[in-house]
Amino acid sequence: MTADVVKGMVATRFTQAVNIGLVVIVGVWHLGVDSLLVLRGWPVYEPQAAAAGSWLALTVIQTVGSILLLRSVLSARTARRLAAAALVSGIVAAAAYPPGGAIGDVSWAGNTVGWFGVLLLIQRPLWELITLHGVNTAVIVGFLAADGALDQVTVSRLLAMVYTTAGIQLTFAYLARQLNDGAREATAIAAGQAEHLARATADETVHAERRSRYEYLRIRVEPLLRGLAERQLDPGDTVVRQRAAVEAARLRRLFAETDDTPHPLLHELRACADVAERRGVSVTLLSYGDLPDLPASVRRELGEGTLLVLATAATRARVTVVTTPEEVVVSVVADAPPETLVKSPGPLTVSALYDQEENQLWWENRWPVRPAP
Hints:
Blueprint: H1 3-41, H2 48-70, H3 76-95, H4 109-121, H5 126-146, H6 152-229, H7 238-257, H8 264-278, E1 282-288, H9 296-312, E2 316-323, E3 327-334, E4 349-355, E5 360-368
Parallel strand pairs: 1-2
Antiparallel strand pairs: 2-3, 3-5, 4-5
Helix pairs in contact: 1-2, 1-4, 1-6, 2-3, 2-4, 3-4, 3-5, 4-5, 4-6, 5-6, 6-7, 7-8, 7-9, 8-9
């Protein structure tokens, strides 16, 4: 999993938690507090259908907005339309208040429209929510002015109401936005540290692999090269030439291990076959079945016997790789000398047979894909 995916998952979960809390707050406010206020002021509303209709409309808007928000599919256009519908429902409710009742014991829609704005515009720029509160306050002032109730006391109460309710709602929206930004920043820092650690671990792994390969070559190739350089080994000697062929094949296989190919084992066996073909050996490489992902150490053990046989083959060789659900089998048949037979290390099942009449060597390695029960 990439760092960007991790950051997105953490930020999404944190935002979802904030949204759930907001949905609960708005739901309790409208279905609980508003319902009690509507029932208490029911006798003084005129017409009562306007009060009931606006409450029902706000309930529908709340339900739709909450579902879309929790599913993270609340688009900007839909959020604005629902907020406008909530504002219109609030105006209808205020029209049913008794004269001068735009702020008082029977008024309920003003606070509710503000909370609906927080619910619907939480993901929008903050100025949109401020604009909604401004229009909502202007509507209340308009009704008070129309009723002739806009005196000094009423203005003071209105300012206090706006300061407390709108202040709480805007503060909630601002803090939620800050918390979301803080969560994203913290997640980005943690993801950056994890990425740095993963990169450092990968570098260490590559470095260790290179040292391992260098040590492998130093132990096997260096004595041969030193012997040739110091003239302790005769290049014309058949044994020396076979050793050189084996080490050349090992080098080609090591180089092939770093290549990015769909089937690394076949690629490494092909590299060994190329060395033999350069000596004039006719090599056939066949594969049956879908090879699983094998570690480099396993591929190295599977290919070691084939490498030795190909390096000592005289004129022909056939390499076969068979994959079954239980095991991977690598076998080679070639006109190689019986001295090629060696024991292979590791948990491999090794079989070998030399046909003296045909001057033909058969070698087979088996690697269990699934551990035996």
